[in-house]
Amino acid sequence: MEERPQTKKSPREIILEYIKSIVIALILALLIRAFIVQAFKIPSGSMIPTLLIGDHILVTKFTYDVKVPFIDVTIWHRNVPARGDVIVFKYPLDPSKDFIKRVIGVPGDKVFIKNKRVYVNDYELKEPYVNHTDPHILPAELSPRDNLGPIEVPPHSLFVMGDNRDESYDSRFWKFVDFSAVKGKAFIIYWSWNANGHMSLNPNEFFVRWNRIGHIIR
Q1: Which of 113, 115, 140, 172 is the most exposed place for a label (fewest CB within 10 A)?
Q2: What is the pLDDT of residue 22?
Q3: Torsion sign across C-alpha atoms 42, 44, 48, 54
């Protein structure tokens, strides 16, 4: 059977195909960002050693809620953040900023901090991820950093703290995060850039922290 010769596409048809492909790719990217995952960069050291400055992470958007993009209206409530989850949320005092912290208390929990030790419902938390940089204990009259409470977490709210306890601005200072402010759960480091790095055989001192890429956040 004789093959039919292919007709050559006009420049206009080629341009339209490219535009169509780009539009489809943009729509897919927006859907993924809105409902599945979103990328964030760690700008501060409040979560050291779990997260370092320059870590780039992916956050699951569907772990807790499925929301309508741009207006943040929840259309499907799936789960409540659990104690120990590392979450990204809108900073309560300035929703234009995103913060990342660890969930310490959930609704109904009684949180008490005594001499840097954290107690929830009268039991001391075992926190192998915590880092302390200041050996001094600040009294409650001076700062809530090392001594606080007890305080009860209200409904629909979370008490969060940074793993770098002495260098974190968190619920000890501005209290609670509402469920509606939660953007998602941090789950993996996909890239890590050490701005202060140099050409070194030590992987922690090199520009790219190769040993952190693919690390699951816990």
Answers
A1: 115
A2: 80
A3: positive
Residue with tokens 């090199």: 206
Q: Which of 46, 157, 171, 192 is catalytic?
A: 46
| Reported pTM | 0.82
**How far apart are the C-alpha atoms of 98 and 59, rounded to whole Å?**
12
| pLDDT for position 31 | 63
- With vertex at residue 194, the alpha carbon angle to CA 173 and CA 203, rounded to the nearest 5 degrees, is 120
- 35-44, 78-87, 110-119, 177-186: which has the highest mean pLDDT? 110-119
Q: In what order do the strands lie in the sheet with 110-114?
A: 123-124, 117-120, 110-114, 148-152
Question: Are 39 and 18 within 8 A, CB to CB?
Answer: no
Is residue 101 annotated as a catalytic residue, yes or no?
A: yes
The two tokens of residue 79 are 């789960």
Catalytic residue among 101, 171, 183, 192: 101
Residue 96 is a catalytic residue: no
- Cα 176 from Cα 167, distance rounded (Å): 18
pLDDT in tens, 152-177: 999 999 999 999 999 999 999 999 99
Provide the token pair at 5.
């010769």
User: Which residues lie closer than 8 Å to 188 by C-beta, 6 or more apart?
Assistant: 57, 58, 214, 215, 216, 217
Distance of alpha carbon 6 from alpha carbon 120, whole angstroms: 72
